[in-house]
Amino acid sequence: MALTARNDAFVAFDGVQKSYDGETLVVKDLNLHIAKGEFLTMLGPSGSGKTTCLMMLAGFETATNGEIRLDGRPINQVPPHKRGIGMVFQNYALFPHMTVGENLSFPLEVRGMGKEERQTRIARALDMVQMGAFAARRPAQLSGGQQQRVALARALVFDPELVLMDEPLGALDKQLREHMQFEIKHLHESLGITVVYVTHDQGEALTMSDRIAVFNDGRIQQLAPPSDLYERPDNSFVAGFIGENNRLTGTVEDIAGGRALVRLATGELIDATPVNVSRKGQPTLVSIRPERVEYKPEALPEGAHTLDAEVLEFIYMGDIFRTRLRVAGSEDFVIKSRNTAGQRMLRPGEKIRIGWAPQDARALDPA
Asked: What distance in Å separates the CA atoms of residue 362 and residue 234, rounded to the nearest whole number?
């Protein structure tokens, strides 16, 4: 999805800051514009500011400075129940004394909707999440996955244009979590709603999002589609946080023609795309994704950089092999290779030669 123009944003944070004690900013000068119909994920470690941003948008927290707008209107002073926003929490937040149908009816009653219209909307919302047969049950009679479906249906039942989700799949097991990721994404696409989603799970963010805002220390480190974040990280934090990443320390020897020549700490010379370096003598961290590295000579791309390596660990993971190597002073250099017919298993202590295409290495700021 194309970036939305500043004046056309459906959700807009302009210069937003948040402090709980009047001194320390947990959100620092946030400027973020979200298009109508977009699925945007706020991703980051605990304490990075992502959940606080979501709570300010929902109205459960108040911005210390700056303005938040929804569909062009300022909402800083609008109470949560008047913002018309659907909300899904990690703990589901269902009323235990109410049936599933009554849980869904509640937000409709608050809006003064008649009984017949309520029943129609409840049935439709439950059918969306394959829970139509469970309207008479109470939350305690449902599994965790079923409760999460009900919570999602309750957020959708009054046809909000914006739905906020705060770690909604965090309490589910891996298989159910992955299934629900696709269900939520399909609902988003079919209904055309705008979704702002908070998670610390990078795989979840990459799977579901149109764009991802990577947070750290109260700031957005990079805002981009999933493929850009993974293939072209802006800094060492994003490179390390999104997916597995090999990092080799070195110093910039030269920069010319859009390439950086880097001397590694062990003396080898390699070249890389300069991202956060601009001059000779700068320390740098060279980033290479594990799946971009080859150890079979016939598979090395033309012009590949090659380095000596020693196998430290070889792990069979079913669809892939994960090999940990000692490379240029690092003992955490990893190769991920597909489990294909005739693939040779490596042995700890084996000496091999590895390589990658020069364009797959990025010279970033030191961690």
From this structure: 9
Q: How many CA atoms lie within 13 A of 39 on its CB side?
A: 22
pLDDT in tens, 84-101: 899 998 777 889 999 999
- Confidence band for 7, pLDDT divided at 50, 70 and 90: low
Query: Looking at the DSSP assignment, which residues form a beta bridge with residue 14?
Result: 67
Task: Spell out the SS3 assignment of 107-128.
Answer: HHHHCCCCHHHHHHHHHHHHHH
CA distance 141 to 14: 44
Distance CA 319, CA 313 (A): 17
Cα distance between residue 53 and residue 91, in whole Å = 19
User: Running DSSP on this structure, what letter comes out for residue 4?
Assistant: P
* Opening angle at CA 264, ends 324 and 299, nearest 5: 50
Query: Which H/E stretch holds residue 148?
Result: helix 144-156
Angle between helical axes of 144-156 and 100-110 (0-180°, round to 10): 20
pLDDT for 172: 79
- Residue 1: which pLDDT band, with cuts at 50, 70 and 90? very low
User: 263, 250 in Cβ contact below 8 A?
Assistant: yes
pLDDT at residue 38, rounded to an integer: 97
| Distance between CA atoms of residues 220 and 216, nearest Å | 7
Q: In what order do the strands lie in the sheet with 11-19?
A: 25-34, 11-19, 65-70, 73-74
Are the beta carbons of 264 and 249 closer than 8 angstroms?
Answer: yes
Q: Which two tokens stand for residue 82?
A: 């008047």
Residue 30 has pLDDT above 60, yes or no: yes
127-153 pLDDT, tens digit per residue, is: 988 899 999 999 999 988 899 889 999
Question: In whole angstroms, what is the distance from residue 143 CA to residue 321 CA?
Answer: 35
Classify burial at 320, counting beta carbons within 10 Å of its beta carbon; exposed 0-12, middle 13-18, buried 19 or more.
Answer: middle
**Each residue's pLDDT tens digit, 106-124:** 989 888 889 999 999 999 9
Name the token pair of 324: 């940990």
